[in-house]
Amino acid sequence: MKKIGCVGWMILLFASCSDYLNVVPDNTLTLEDIFTVKEDAYNALAKLYNGIPRDDNTHLTTWTLGDEWVGRLDLNNNTGDLRAIRIMRGLQSATDPQLGLWSGTQGGKHMYRAIRQTDVFLANIDKVADMTEQEKAEWKAQAKCLKAYFAFLLVQKYGPIVIPTEMVTPDATSDQLFLPRSKVEDCFNFIIDLLDEATPDLVEKVALSELGQIDQIVAKAIKAKVLFYRASPFYNGNREYFGDFLDHDGQPFFPLTYDKEKWKQAIDAINDALNICSVNGIRLYTYEKEPFIYDREDFDANPEKMQTLYDLRMVICDPWNSELVWGYSGIDYYNQGELAHSTNMRLPSGFSGVTNTAEYSWQWMGATYQMVERYYTKNGLPITEDRTFDVSSMYEIIETPGMMDPEYADIRGIMQPREQTIRLYMDREPRFYANLGITGGYWRTHSFRIPTMMFGGAYGGYNSSQHSTDFFCTGIGIQKFVHPESTSGAWQRTIKYPYPIIRLADLYLMKAEALNEYNDAPTQEVYNAINLVRERAGIPRVESVWADATLVNSVNKHRTKEGMRDIILQERSIELAFEGSHFWDMLRHKKAASEFSAPIWGWTHTGTTAQTFFVLEVKQARKFTITDCLWPISLNEMNTNGELIQNPGW
């Protein structure tokens, strides 16, 4: 950690601007000027939110950690591209860590700098003359919550951190500058205490003009998430990984004895967050507008399934909807680079509009084959558990039912009639069709419903005459983040929305997991929490389907803690697919190293027929070890601060 003087602080504090508040401060302002009047102080508050990482950005996001995503293979050797995927390929480095939050290396936001900025704000906000004491207290509370959140992001990646209790001043001594890392439990306690201190001074719910700012709803959700992580096996009693990871006094950084009561504290915080969400109208999203014109006929003919499809298709990209607890408000309206852009397919030739244009429709960030298998069947079961789903024939090439066939009624508007596809794509749950772009399905984008085939030269498929590098290398797209009305060519043609930091479905699934871990066996309360998400997804209740011996192989798996844990984690991996959750879920349960070292598979994207396309091949090697579970502190930082102890293996 380095000493930063007041002039440096001013540069850091106002180096960039969060577009959502449309603030462009005068660079000539002094510290005294900024905290003289309310308007300038508000600009300073806005800048604090700029410390939130850009998980919406394709090359800077952590959402592509894990095994869900794969991008352009020709970018494999570019250190500045697809940084999270580089980590999954075993290319993390202590010299210049990818997405490093400790020092802001290789695309990572500098969290200690962001924390220092909150300290500057807290030290000066009382100087503002034209603010009430209540206003000052509320803004201070926002700054404290941001400080707590930034500290949590550090603990999440690094484990023990240097607890930022005091602001470093220009006259600080070396003992004040160069501090050791604290025990993980002390770090969590620091974060929780800061949130508890701040929450009473926040407004319960921010006004529409201030969406994205922290209120009591957000603060309680952050606390719930922090305690959820603290109770998880990676951070709670992890003797297996960190039994010999010791501080200067020879004491373990991580708590080595598992404490079940931490789950009870998490449950209480989750319930508190859910209660305040309920009181303030935050609820699971359902689509309540008119369907798009191209879907209206199918909507009338197949209303229940089409409604579910819309509920799931629009839950992320319908701006500021009812499910969003906290969204990233630093929306970059004028530039491309979001996951929504890198995942969007281009409008093919033959449609009216801006066709075959790369701007805002990169058409190369896609899903791995692992995700195709991960989604449930129509019965809400894993494909290997559903007795009605024949795994032995799932690679069989078939033709979908025709419009006049009775079987077409259930897939109308979801799969194309009389088109070639693979049996693996049939009889799947609604989220499979809402989230993925598949052969024989539909992709709603560019204000059209595009019948995607993904074969070489077909809609959505590889087309070397258009672009030799921009294609879905697995032949599987992701349409979850693409608003159906977004088009190519210019920012004015795209629909922008806040990417979710926390949404309600996550809280319900956190509750199910916390209850399951705390109790000796699953209770009805566990089932109720997960069923809220499953029912919106159009699949059966967990206790009914898992008890049905005619449907499931592992009958009553849901009645054991271990079995229900597997069910909850798979539910999270599907409901929160591609949103950066699965990687951390596997890490929390110490499964990341075993789950994420398998190679990435996909279809043969150059195949022009079903027979040549539906052939699995390895697309990218992956290597993720226990060492990778904690980010390395950069060697430059280690050399600067002799009090730091490096993370194991680095």
From TrEMBL:
PROSITE patterns: PROKAR_LIPOPROTEIN. One of its GO terms (cellular component) is cell outer membrane. Gene3D superfamilies: 1.25.40.390. InterPro entries: SusD_RagB_dom, TPR-like_helical_dom_sf. It is found in: Cell outer membrane. It holds the Pfam family SusD_RagB. Residues 334-650 form the RagB/SusD domain. Keywords: Cell outer membrane, Membrane, Signal. The keyword Endoplasmic reticulum does not apply. The keyword Membrane applies. Its main location: membrane. This is RagB/SusD family nutrient uptake outer membrane protein. It comes from termite gut metagenome.
